[in-house]
Design a protein that fits this description.
The chain is α/β, with parallel strands linked by helices and about 350 residues long. About 50% of the residues lie in helices and about 5% in strands. The protein has two domains: about 5-215, 3-Layer(aba) Sandwich (Rossmann fold); about 220-355, no CATH class. It has helices spanning about 10-20, 40-50, 70-75, 105-110, 125-130, 140-150, 170-185, 205, 220-230, 235-245, 245-260, 270-275, 280-305, 310-330, 335-350, 355; strands spanning about 30, 120, 160-165, 190-195, 210-215. The chain has a five-stranded parallel sheet with strand order 2-3-4-1-5, with helices on both faces. The longest helix is centred in the last third of the chain and has 25 residues, at about 280-305. Bound molecules: zinc ion. Zinc ion (ZN) binds near residues 52, 100, 103, 104 and 107. The site of zinc ion has 9 residues, from helix 4.
Length: about 350
Amino acid sequence: MSFSGILGQDRTVGRLRALIESGRVPPAMIFHGPPGVGKFLTALEFAKALNCSHVAHREKPPAPPPPDPDDLFAAAAPAAPPPEPEPEPGPETHADCSDSCGKCLSCLQAASGAHPDIRVIDTSFQAALLEEKETSNLKIDTMREMTRWAQQKAMLSPWKVFIVRDAEAMGGQAQNALLKTLEEPPPGTVVIMTVHRKTSLISTILSRSSLIDFAPLPAAVLRDLLRAQGAEPAQTDSLAALGAGSMEKAAEAASFLKRVSALHPGDPARAFKFAAGLPRDSHKAREEVKTLLDLLLSRARLAWRKADGPAKARLTALLRRTLELRRMSERNVSYSLLLETALLESERAGIPLEDLIKRG
Ligand SMILES: [Zn+2]
């Protein structure tokens, strides 16, 4: 894949390509926008294009530094394969100097996640680094280790790129530890933070970073992506509508549809069984519950506008209760219990489970 594989973000990709072409790459960048619109994929493509060794204007990469026995990053990261000789410029040279070739060693390493100079910092990387169970937050020790590694020379490539994925997972102390790298960025180092809301980062990080915004995906792009992932043609329109510009939300909606269709319509334990199908990962479970509660809220508001008499009173109570559950979903609670409560109350108010994932 290259930048051409990033769909629905033409303006943003154009801006990034112009940065690569100009050679004036900011040391810190914040890719912000809704979840599931391609921020992380674009960050990977950006890193790949920066380090592609077939691009005509690249300088020869510096020699790798001697291994550091205390380098926890090197221990946690996959071992780098031995460097191959640099390809001679000539017919192989890639004409487009703002995109990757997808064929050189650097591009292949980046595509397989084994590039020694492109590091993705997220909670699963952290678990390997600190040799502990995966947690939902990025810790100060991880960011300190990243700062230390940023001070070292790149191993094979012109640029050392850190992608801090879902950077809102950093608490205040972890953000302050990252700030050290951003205050005095080592030459040739780029830190990209992907984040849903830029306001989840402290102002001192925001002021030192270039903001790159990502828009919701157009419905046509969502439909194409859903079809490519094997969604039923009859469902792509409604899934794209439920996705509301986010492939992550559309994929969640597809999973809801699958789970609902597996339940028997007359089963009194449907809400319980549906809630029991939430992902085990608590972060994913919370996101799914939030999506379902948002769907329930919009469905209940629609029904409320058309209702009168006792039905309207029931829906008013449901709306109040769902708003309360939605607020609770931001905290550490039992997400399956919370979802089960919401589904039982919505069925009682006349909104069955199936209606939540209907289009319109
Ligand atoms: Zn390449």
